[in-house]
Write a structure and sequence with these properties.
- Helix 3 packs across helix 4.
- This protein has a domain of 119 residues: endopeptidase fold (from Nostoc punctiforme) (Alpha-Beta Complex).
- The protein has five helices and eight strands.
- It is an alpha+beta fold.
- The strands form two sheets. A six-stranded antiparallel sheet has the order 3-8-4-5-6-7.
- A hairpin with a 2-residue loop joins strand 5 and strand 6.
- Helix content is 52%, strand content 13%.
């Protein structure tokens, strides 16, 4: 026994057995909890936890809807492509039709102009034929009756022009000749009218439009006759009356007086 055991103040209070057992149980439970927690923590640190998400499984109906949607999309794309091809073909056809129409119009217009030109040419040929027949008749009548065709009933300036060209009968024909002893057709006509103060162009083409166009059935002495069309004549001479004309014809005849029937002219102009 301790030497202090008998002193009341130094005695330790006795613990009951129940309290001691309870404390032992609590301590054991705490230790058990800590051990479990530690084991759990160690396991968590060693192995990561993987979470698995489950995707919904495609049902037969859903798969059919997806396939139907894909078919519809493909069909729509095909329809758009077909429509684009049709639009392109229609535009191309419209363009070709427009081109064909324009070409047809051009051909029709050209054909129309050709027909008009042919009718005009036929009318001109018929008119010239009629005028030549009319002119040939007086010349033939004069020859049959023995009437002199070297005379003229012209007066004034026309008489002076006729006198000049008759004075040159027998001169040579030379292309580009303007006298005094050789002439070409337009050179002789120009020189004749210059005698009366009328300045004519140098060439036949211009002389055929120098005055007023007159009908071959209404000729007067002093009129200028031309062969070819007005503005593009290739020969000219002077009408001297009685169905006769004087001109520088060609190198074979030179300046000569001939009846209208010898070489019927195409037209005539009057400058006096």
């Amino acid at each position: 026994m301790s030497h202090t055991a008998l002193i009341r103040s130094h005695r330790k209070p006795r613990r009951s057995a129940s309290k001691i057992a309870m404390r032992a149980g609590v301590a054991g439970g705490v230790l058990s909890t800590l051990a479990v927690a530690g084991a759990s923590g160690s396991a968590s640190a060693a192995e990561p936890v993987t979470q698995t998400l489950e995707l919904p499984t495609l049902t037969a109906d859903l798969a059919a809807q997806v396939a139907q949607s894909a078919d519809a999309t493909q069909q729509a794309a095909a329809n758009y492509q077909l429509q684009a091809e049709r639009d392109s073909a229609a535009a191309k056809a419209a363009k070709q039709a427009k081109s064909d129409l324009a070409e047809a119009k051009q051909k029709a217009e050209a054909k129309k102009k050709a027909q008009q030109a042919a009718r005009k040419a036929a009318a001109e040929r018929a008119s010239r034929s009629a005028e030549r027949t009319t002119l040939a008749a007086p010349a033939a009548s004069s020859a049959s009756t023995g009437t002199s065709t070297s005379t003229s009933t012209a007066t004034g300036s026309a008489a002076a022009v006729i006198a000049f060209v008759k004075a040159q009968i027998g001169d040579a024909y030379v292309s580009g000749g303007t006298g005094p002893n050789s002439w070409d057709c337009s050179g002789l006509v120009q020189a004749a009218f210059k005698q009366v103060g009328v300045n004519l162009p140098r060439v036949s083409q211009d002389q055929s439009t120098a005055g007023t166009q007159v009908s071959l059935s209404n000729l007067q002495p002093g009129d200028i006759l031309y062969w070819g069309s007005a503005g593009s004549a290739y020969h000219v001479a002077v009408y001297v009356g009685d169905g006769m004309f004087v001109g520088a014809q060609n190198p074979s005849t030179g300046v000569a007086e001939k009846p209208l029937s010898y070489d019927p002219p195409t037209g005539a102009v009057r400058v006096l």
